[in-house]
Amino acid sequence: MLDYDDLLLFWHALLADPAAGEAIRREFDCVLVDEYQDTNALQAEILLGLSPTGEGVTVVGDDAQSIYGFRAATVRNILDLPKQYPGITVLALEQNYRSTEPILAATNQVIGLAKERYTKNLWSERTQGERPALVTCEDEDDQTEYVIRHILEHRESGIDLRRQAVLFRASHHSMGLEAELARRNIPFHKYGGLKFIETAHIKDLMAFLRLAENPRDLVAGGRLLPLVPGIGPTKARQLMEMLAGENGDFAAWKRWKPPEAARGLWPALVELVADLARSKRPLPEQISQVR
Fold first, then answer.
1. Residues 9 and 49 in one domain
2. What is the per-residue pLDDT across 243-259, written as a single tens digit (0 to 9) for each?
3. 3-state DSSP assignment of residue 73
4. Residue 231 lies in a domain
5. How far is CA 36 from the centre of its chain?
6. DSSP states along 125-173
7. Of 211, 220, 218, 225, the residue nearest 241 (C-alpha)
8. pLDDT at 47
9. Residue 44 and residue 36: Cα distance in Å, rounded?
């Protein structure tokens, strides 16, 4: 009966109750919080309610990685922890196992500009590696071209494609690059999120084109027809059987009387796929027509 926000609010209220709060506190000798820089003000109060003195409390976090302010996280929680628990021990974990020294040198310089922070100078035993480059591109297309050019140069120098990676802040940022890689037949695998051509709206668009190309394509028809109000999977299958019985002539659909919910859209839909089926226009124009 509780959503995530409710769980926090009820937990906070429970700890604030003198009897219930004390009973809960007796249940725990130690409290460990990970990614503390991503907690919000309410969660910090819950931690204080679990251990008002700080005894048994350990938090792990990095003020330099506080990026969830849009989700109400506040970096003040980790910065103000010594004020909340005077006498707390602060341990800086400075050895980095992921990056190379040239990258860490750059990041140390960048975060060193912060007005308030825990002082950490990251270092690594991996001393080799190129210096990171800051590249300015004119637009998304120029950026895509830059990335692909370097991917191919690396491959020519002996670095397999499977040993190369492109990192993105968000999944949808990769769409331009995915489209161009696919156009050039450069194989790639995407981790986290769907590939551009696997997204629902692209599959919907492709269904129009595929059905126009092959009126017997049951998968395309089964995806396209239920987009119309009043047409479900069963009716879609019947309409595809009707189309097959007429040798793929979309005139069969023109004679069908749609349900009330579909009546406003059905004639234009049938005319669209019929026009696409006989169209000799370039593909970009057909895609624009579907959109």
1. yes
2. 988 888 998 898 899 88
3. strand
4. yes
5. 22
6. S----PPP-----SSHHHHHHHHHHHHHHHHHTT--GGG-----SSGGG
7. 218
8. 97
9. 9
Task: Give residue-wise pLDDT tens across range 157-191.
Answer: 999 999 999 999 888 889 899 999 999 999 999 88
Residue 198 DSSP symbol: G
Quote the CA–CA distance of 92 and 103 in Å, as a whole number: 19
Q: Does some domain include residue 249?
A: yes
Question: Tokens 């998304």 correspond to what residue?
Answer: 140
d(CA 106, CA 117): 17
Are 121 and 148 in a shared domain?
no
Query: Residue 21 class from Cβ within 10 Å (0-12 exposed, 13-18 middle, 19+ buried)?
Result: middle
Nearest to 210 by CA among 196, 195, 225, 199: 225
Instruction: Sort residue 185 into left (φ over 0), alpha (ψ -120 to 50) or beta.
Output: left
Token pair listed for 102: 């040239």
